[in-house]
Amino acid sequence: MYLITGCNGQLGTELKKRLPDAICADVDMLDITDGAAVQKFVRENNVDLIINCAAYTAVDKAEDDIDLATKINVDGPANLAKTGAKIIHISTDYVFDGCGHYPYSPDDETNPVSVYGKTKRAGELAVLNNAPVAVVIRTAWLYSPYGNNFVKTMRRLGAEKESINVVADQIGTPTYAGDLADAIVQIIPQMTRENSGIYHFTNMGVCSWYDFANEIMEMSGLKCVVNPIKSSEYPTRAVRPFYSVLDKSKIQAVFNIKIQHWKKGLEKCLKQF
Q: Is-catalytic flag, 116?
């Protein structure tokens, strides 16, 4: 039996559509920070694979809410990993400092500079150190028709305003949650102790948030003008990585995953609005 935690988030919602027989749990059904409750739930429901999409993702709030971010991003994954079930755990580009100039490989040294990034890195290690079979997937710039995300915000602002400012000096790759969900479904039957480890998945290609915003406006038929600004003109509580392009060659080679360009992913997503 499969268990999807954090099932009401962007990725969890996409996975529910693809794995209709899975047990779908959000915090109201299962508090992953309660180790005894997790053990009991997994045992009683004969869970042999967990896809952990649950996370504390409020990047700026995490700077002041360290205890809760740690409970959800570190203790929760550790509890899930200790059940003995196989686990697919979702992580983030924020485990890197963003000072690189080439796509980060899964083996590159991490150096998180925010509380969110630090807790997510600790969560990765908790999963890898405790689960019998574990695939940790780092992703970035996730969006979908569900929840709060950049695409939905841009479409809303684009319909309301004549022009908006978007940072142009942060580089990465947008990731359609539906494409990540498809990859996860493909990985599940291939998981073994030998291919346990860290993998990267985003769509292909590279852009800035400014480029991404322009493409959203164009594909949505919105006339809103997007102005490029520097990150220093839009200060945030937590430091964002300036460069967070991820190298996907390992996940492609090991699990034979085909990955589409980010513009193709955006096209598919926008058709659902």
A: yes
Tokens in use for 67? 């205890």
Which among 116, 176, 199, 210 is annotated as catalytic? Answer: 116
Which residues share a beta bridge with 229? 167
Tokens representing 178?
Answer: 């539906």
| Three-point CA angle 128, 89, 101, nearest 5° | 85
Token pair for residue 187?
A: 């990985």
8 A C-beta contact, residue 107 and residue 249: no
Angle, in degrees to the nearest 10, between helices 262-270 and 150-160: 60
Structure-block tokens of residue 253? 């080679």
CB 72 within 8 A of CB 120: no
Strands (E), the chain: 2-5, 23-25, 49-52, 86-92, 134-139, 142-143, 163-167, 171-172, 175-176, 197-200, 207-208, 225-229
User: What confidence tens digit (pLDDT) does each residue in 208-230 have?
Assistant: 999 999 999 999 999 999 999 99
